């Protein structure tokens, strides 16, 4: 099993969610996040004074999938999240040892 | 789900415990033991009120003649069979140990007031019962103080039952524990408590709690969303909203009776002979309104028909001073309004509108005042539309409060943001009414626009302001939803916002409203994350719009120009709906604005607005002032004399002003945001524009004027506005030699002004 983590622009969340649902993914975890990558924040002018915004609001999305689905799900996310401009975010996968559904105690792929 | 079922459950427990008790005595083989010991129920169980998940609060009372081993064996034998099925809270004490425990622990003392024999020696229980009541009455004063303190702590912790969407039925303010407290207060004999007024509330809350225990299968008292539908169904309510409405109504009546009871207790002994011998200190704080015994009252013999604004004046004064509004005053006002006395004209007089804004803008202090206006049904006479959101639940995981309380909380948060906008009055008003459209299936923003229009008209806003208010209500979710769901880098996103928000001032208002609304919703609705996104959007939209708008310099008439050219002082006074309109044409001199403002202040005339302009060597000023209560009669001649003297030597005015400021310092105040000073350069007039946003207070304009004079700059014109309790002063200034200030000079003046206004 794999955990797919995606850092997205907040406004892209709706598109990505819809695309994932279209691909048969029904569960996901979404949280508010902030950070910066290669774009390195940007400069703002507020009431005449310049200041640097180094932490930019993003959305962090996490999905658990079976190994065989991982690549296709990553593709779905990347396609839906892309605007082509800087700050579009990143997607990565991590191997997962075990998954347990708390209510039923099911384990492994059944618990996804 | 009824008192009957809870009583049956309690009787059932009695039988079971009684059997266990007898069996234990038998097993120990000592029949005599039954005379030395008794088993009693205390607290809610003592009253026979047992919900499925309630604890069994029991007390073993013994004579002290039983050995500790035997006692231990007996208690264990009674409790052991209950271990898995019931949650039992027990204690084992002699009569004197019980007395000691009751003296040192308030909860024990109140729990014992409901003690009831289950089994064993009845005399032991009867003694403890009479001790408990005797002790409670003997130390009533001290006990009630402790009780009050513990209640306040619990209320802070658990919040208000009436307004929380997932409340704790027992612990929250207005909940079941408060009913027990009221019963304990009644038993103290210190005051009569009309407990019959809350009998409906008590059975309603108990029924809901009982059903919650049944529905959840647990003894928890917090009514979570996930249980509300099931509980409502068990109680045969149409839906969960109907049930939550009943819970809120019940809680409010409990809370109100509790407030009323504390109020009566606190004012006890101040009536009768005591009052004649030592009159309470009464100070007039506004027309027909006084502070007496540290609360705000409407003066006796005030005619509500002659002074229909007095109710709003009392409420606003109380809120602005951070003092409570007298319950007697509210009852009297409510009675009068019900009889059709003291009805406000439509539209409201300007004073009434300003007072409403001052009330809304008082921040935290407003919440208590608003609640009493609601409980006494005064607010519905002023704003009938408020009825439709009263105690209205919102079944939305983001919200914590009912609709009415959410709007009041939003206004509290908005009061902290009044410096961020040019029209604090519109911000506060929109905050208090932004969700007025809730309660139907229709989109609440769209319905809100239809509702806000007649309210704003009645309250007396002009057509232009009403348009702004409608925009604010319609778009109060626009910034949050756009910032989190749309691409801010896309020019189309910014254009879509620019197309519906007409100007920078509305944008600033909307930004402040979004923040206040979000903060009032709670951490689920507003976070640093969201604030950053919304701020980003606002800055981008601002850049796309034209620059900020400031108050324009006033126009002057030909007659005024002719008079100004003469260079002689002229003062004309006219009656005005808010008091007087005063025109002053005077030879210009440094500090003129603060001198004239100072003369008004020492004449006890409150400046509401001013427009001044310098023409050559003269200045034309137009002031609207309101006399304070007990202000001496004023005439053109008298004012002329005072201003003429002050123009020659202003020392006298300054001294009197400082004396007045010192006297004002003793009046209670509420926390207000710091003043803000903004500076722009106005290319069209070749002057620097200084905008001061501050809480209005006596002598404000004098201080501003004096600070400017000290900075050695020239005021070309000034536009002063008071909106509720907020003041916005716009000054067009130049260097003494002419021309705008350099940016260093401007910053210097701004920091000097801020310092002077602290």
TrEMBL record, chain A:
The modification O-UMP-tyrosine is found at residue 51. Transmembrane segments: none annotated. One of its GO terms (molecular function) is enzyme regulator activity. GO terms for cellular component: cytosol. SMART domains: P-II. One of its GO terms (biological process) is regulation of nitrogen utilization. It comes from the Bacteria. Keywords: Nucleotide-binding, Phosphoprotein, Transcription, Transcription regulation. Coiled coil: none annotated. Homotrimer. This is Nitrogen regulatory protein P-II.
């Amino acid at each position: 099993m794999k955990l797919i983590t995606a850092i997205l622009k907040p406004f892209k969340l709706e598109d990505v969610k819809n695309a994932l649902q279209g691909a048969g993914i029904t569960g996901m975890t979404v949280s508010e996040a902030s950070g910066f990558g290669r774009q390195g924040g940007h400069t703002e002018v507020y009431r005449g004074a310049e200041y640097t915004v180094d932490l930019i609001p993003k959305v962090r999305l996490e999905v658990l999938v079976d190994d065989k689905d991982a690549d296709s799900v990553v593709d779905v996310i990347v396609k839906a999240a892309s605007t082509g401009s800087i700050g579009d975010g990143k997607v990565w996968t991590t191997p997962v040892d075990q998954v347990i559904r708390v209510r039923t105690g099911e384990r492994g792929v059944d618990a996804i | 789900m009824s008192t009957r079922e809870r009583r049956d459950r309690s009787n059932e427990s009695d039988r079971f415990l009684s059997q266990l008790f007898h069996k234990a005595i038998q097993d120990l083989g000592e029949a005599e033991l039954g005379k030395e010991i008794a088993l009693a129920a205390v607290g809610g169980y003592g009253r026979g009120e047992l919900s499925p998940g309630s604890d069994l609060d029991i007390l073993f009372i013994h004579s002290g003649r039983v050995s500790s081993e035997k006692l231990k064996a007996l208690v264990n034998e009674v409790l052991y069979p209950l271990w898995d099925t019931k949650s039992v809270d027990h204690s084992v004490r002699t009569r004197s140990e019980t007395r000691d425990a009751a003296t040192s622990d308030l909860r024990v003392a109140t729990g014992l007031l409901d003690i009831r024999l289950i089994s064993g020696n009845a005399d032991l229980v009867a003694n403890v019962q009479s001790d408990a009541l005797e002790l409670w009455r003997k130390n009533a004063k001290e006990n009630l103080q402790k009780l009050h303190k513990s209640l306040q702590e619990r209320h802070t912790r658990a919040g208000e039952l009436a307004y929380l969407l997932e409340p704790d039925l027992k612990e929250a303010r207005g909940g079941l524990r408060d009913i027990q407290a009221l019963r304990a207060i009644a038993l103290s004999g210190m005051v009569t408590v009309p407990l019959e007024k809350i009998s409906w509330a008590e059975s309603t809350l108990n029924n809901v709690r009982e059903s919650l225990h049944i529905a959840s299968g647990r003894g928890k008292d917090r009514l979570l969303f996930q249980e509300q539908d099931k509980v409502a169904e068990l109680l045969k309510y149409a839906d969960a909203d109907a049930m939550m409405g009943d819970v809120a109504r019940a809680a409010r009546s409990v809370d109100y009776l509790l407030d009323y009871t504390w109020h009566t207790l606190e004012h006890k002994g101040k009536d009768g002979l005591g009052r004649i011998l030592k009159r309470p200190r009464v100070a007039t704080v506004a027309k027909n309104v006084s502070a007496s015994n540290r609360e705000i009252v409407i003066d006796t013999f005030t005619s509500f028909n002659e002074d229909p604004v007095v109710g709003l004046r009392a409420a606003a004064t109380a809120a602005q001073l951070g003092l409570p509004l007298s319950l007697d005053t509210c009852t009297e006002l409510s009675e009068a309004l019900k009889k059709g006395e003291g009805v406000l004209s439509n539209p409201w007089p300007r004073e009434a509108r300003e007072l409403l804004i001052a009330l809304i803008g008082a921040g935290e202090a407003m919440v208590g005042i608003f609640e009493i206006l609601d409980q006494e049904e005064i607010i519905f006479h002023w704003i009938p539309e408020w009825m439709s959101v009263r105690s209205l639940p919102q079944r939305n995981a983001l919200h914590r409060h009912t609709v009415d309380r959410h709007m009041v909380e939003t206004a509290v948060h908005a009061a902290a943001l009044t410096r961020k906008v040019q029209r604090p009055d519109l911000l506060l008003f929109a905050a208090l009414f932004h969700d007025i459209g809730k309660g139907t299936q229709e989109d609440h923003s769209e319905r809100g626009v239809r509702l806000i229009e007649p309210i704003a008209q009645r309250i007396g806003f002009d057509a232009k302001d009403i348009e702004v208010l409608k925009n604010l209500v319609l778009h109060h979710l626009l910034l949050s939803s756009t910032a989190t769901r749309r691409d801010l880098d896309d020019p189309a996103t910014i254009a879509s916002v620019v197309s519906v928000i007409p100007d920078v001032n509305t944008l600033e208002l909307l930004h402040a409203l979004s923040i206040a609304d979000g903060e009032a919703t709670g951490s689920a609705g507003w976070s640093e994350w969201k604030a950053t996104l919304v701020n980003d959007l606002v800055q981008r939209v601002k850049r796309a719009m034209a620059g900020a708008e400031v108050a324009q310099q006033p126009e002057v008439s030909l007659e005024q120009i002719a008079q100004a050219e003469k260079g002689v002082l002229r003062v004309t006074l006219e009656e005005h709906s808010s008091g007087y309109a005063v025109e002053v044409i005077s030879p210009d001199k440094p500090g003129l604005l603060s001198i004239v403002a100072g003369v008004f202040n020492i004449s006890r005339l409150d400046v509401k607005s001013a427009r001044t302009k310098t023409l050559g060597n003269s200045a034309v000023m137009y002031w609207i002032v309101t006399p304070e209560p007990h202000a001496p009669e004023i005439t053109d001649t008298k004012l002329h004399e005072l201003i003429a003297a002050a123009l020659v030597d202003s020392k006298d005015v300054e001294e009197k002003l400082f004396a007045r400021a010192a006297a004002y310092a003793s009046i209670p105040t509420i926390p207000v945001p710091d003043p803000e000073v903004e500076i722009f350069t106005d290319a069209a007039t070749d002057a620097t524009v200084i905008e001061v946003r501050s809480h209005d207070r006596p002598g404000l304009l004098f201080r501003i004027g004096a600070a400017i004079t000290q900075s050695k700059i020239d005021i070309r014109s000034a536009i002063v506005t008071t909106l509720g309790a907020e003041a916005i002063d716009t000054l067009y200034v130049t260097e003494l030699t002419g021309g705008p200030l350099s940016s260093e000079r401007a910053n210097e003046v701004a920091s000097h002004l801020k310092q002077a206004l602290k």
